[in-house]
Please model this.
Amino acid sequence: MARCSSVPGGLRSPLGQRRSLGGVIRFLRTTSTRRLLALIAAAAAVVIGGTALALAAGGGGPKPPAEPLPVAVHDALTAPPVDGVSGRLKFTNHLISNSDVQGGNPVLSGASGRFWASADGHVRLELQADAGGDGGTSDTQVLSDGRRVTVFDSGSNTVYEATLPKGHDGRKESEGPPTLEQVKKAIARLAEHASVGGAEPSNVAGEPAYTVRIEPKQHGGLLGGAELAWDAAHGTPLRLAVYAKGDSSPVLQLEATDISYGPVSSSVFDVHPPSDAKVVDLSPDGGQPGARGHAAPVTGLDRVQGQVSFPIGAPAELAGMQRDEVRLIRSEDDPGALVTYGKGLDGIAVIEQLTKHDSSSEPSRQDGQVTLPTVSINGTQAEELATPLGTMIRFERSGVEYTVLGSVTATTAETAARALG
Model:
């Protein structure tokens, strides 16, 4: 089996394969609220799939011997490959709640189900939403062949598709597992920016495992840290949890309640959504060729202002943070501006673009009446999505649409929004 599916997350990070900034920003600007929430749900599901060989729930049992973190990681990366994995899983989500997001996918409240992963890179997840206070449930099917991801939401009879970036495992096929010295250097580089714990011997689903916790040293915004556990014998990820600052309970957690190693029949992945399902492409730039994201960036307030048809709201300071950069957003439609403030996750990003006066600019009135909580921004009604890990505010003023994003509290994001325009 390809080792990219059975290594601790972050060691073969996809972050090096960066998407077009313009394409991503354009997607955030033009997407509807339901589409944005679907992307969040799909991203969480893909994370499950990406580490799906397999996640597992904690339990009692024997623990592995204590090992230095580099040794434990190297052993995981060089463990014998497995032919496949299947089992049952549970997804806990305290990031976004259906109590706040009206009309959202019930999976946002958490889900349980089954998963399968094969040696040739195919992954399938079958999730059944936990019953909420209103009794609503929904089935979600997630399929990936390593090149494209498909998410089918039975509640809305909608298929969401996205193309994975080439080389998303972060390693060329010709490369072998890293040496112990390479692992040590990689951990040392990570330790320059984050506090990295040791490989704590643990037991997950009856399997001897190691657990490591990573926390940002500075400029981490609302992110408190993340924990990853992996099978000491197979090198397979067993648990992934993300924590908000100051909270001992995970905001997001992926775990499996049962796990089995062995070949998986190809028929398991022969699943097709109904022919009448609506199809939505979540890929930046709609998956269309010819994206302009690799053009030389245009930066600086004066240069960007000269290429947009509206006055850019870019005060020198926003919510107590100094302006960092103003960058042109390239788009098939009217170009816009991306203005950033502060450093790292502590910062705020502001996307500004002309309001579109067609159905695609009505994020809360299409795709099933998804609505977010609202807040007044200088007398203008704005949509606000506040989570333990960050806040998004979107509003229109004088023909310009503003999207404020950051791993900051709602109060900070609102202060920033009110200073724009």
